[in-house]
Amino acid sequence: MSTRRGIDKESPKRVGLALGGGGAKGVAHVFALEVLDEMGIIPHIIVGTSAGALMGMLYAAGMSAGEIREHIEDNTPFEEGGITEALLNRNILKWFTLLHPSSVRGGLLNTDRFMEVNLQRIGVRTFGELKIPLRVVAADFWKRQQVIFESGELMPAVQASMALPGIFTPVVHNHSVLVDGGTVNPVPYDVIQDDCDITVAVNVAGRRSVPEELTPSFAESLFNTFQIYQASILREKIKRRPPDILLEPEIVDIRIVDFHKARHVLQQASPIKERMKEELKRLLGR
Fold first, then answer.
1. Pairwise CA distance, residues 259 & 27, whole Å
2. What is the pTM assigned to this prediction?
3. 236: how many CB neighbours lie within 10 A of its CB?
4. What is the gyration radius of the CA atoms in the chain, in angstroms?
5. Has residue 132 got a pLDDT over 80?
6. What secondary structure does DSSP assign to the chain, as a single string?
7. Which of 32, 69, 85, 117 sits most deeply, having the most CB atoms within 10 A of its CB?
8. What confidence score (pLDDT) does residue 10 get?
9. 214 conformational bin, left if phi > 0, alpha if psi -120 to 50, beta if neither
10. Tens digit of pLDDT for each residue in 195-226?
11. C-beta atoms surrounding 12 within 10 Å
12. Helices 65-75 and 112-122 meet at what angle, rounded to 10?
């Protein structure tokens, strides 16, 4: 792994980074990480939910933004067409072997292999081995409350944070059933606000256009309802105490499971990079 530059000694403010959930849209977080690398800022702490937890783990382990982008390209299908065309492509067939049918109740797909590929890439398996402190948000299914991981093994924490209900298998850990952190805290900047001078929150939820056929399909109802209550949670948090910088890239018509549209996500989200740079420069007095 490459070595990132340290924070500018003239601006010793503690910068915290919160990366939100969004499934396939989570690849957009790479732009925030690129800004940090280019400005020579090492975050004081990172917190992530779902896809944000995965991206945060890779970066906290020592991967540069450039290496993470390469990792995404190596392990994510990039197709311009629809899902049918994507399924006929050799690269996506290799990728789908990482998400195999689950034999456990509660989810269609098991993410064990997917997590193993990522853990092997970083060569780290515990929070204590990370180069940057990381917190991961998941949800206790039966207690209906937030669970925050910051120590112990990375795999159950990140895997639980990404366990989209009904799609990915829930994680049973310490006698609790854990699911996607987006169900309780889609952009968890509040988890680190008191520990940082500047909090940067990245919301990659995006939006959906209203289709000609107004009545949604079963899948659309399921996924968009998930997005509705996530947006409601975030709005209420912002009313109470907003982050110092809130980045919301204009990602349009990309669904949570549209992993074959990663290139479209990156194209749409790229403008957030310059805005983040400008805001950080202002707040750091550079």
1. 9
2. 0.87
3. 9
4. 18
5. yes
6. -PPPPPPPTT----EEEEE---GGGGGGHHHHHHHHHHHTPPPSEEEEETHHHHHHHHHHTT--HHHHHHHHHHHS-B-SS-HHHHHTSHHHHHHHTTSEEPSSTT-SEE-HHHHHHHHHHHT--BGGG-SS-EEEEEEETTTTEEEEE-SSBHHHHHHHHT--TTTBPPEEETTEEEEEGGGT-SS-GGGTGGG-SEEEEE----B-PPPSS-S--HHHHHHHHHHHHHHHHHHHHHHHS--SEEE----BS--TT-TTBHHHHHHHHTTHHHHHHHHHHHHHT-
7. 32
8. 46
9. alpha
10. 999 999 999 999 988 888 888 787 777 778 88
11. 10
12. 150
CA 168, 205, 65, 69 torsion: positive or negative? positive
Q: Note the residue count of the chain.
A: 286
Structure tokens at 113: 């292999």
CB contact at 8 A, 223 and 180: no
User: Left (φ > 0), alpha (ψ -120 to 50) or beta: where does 206 sit?
Assistant: left
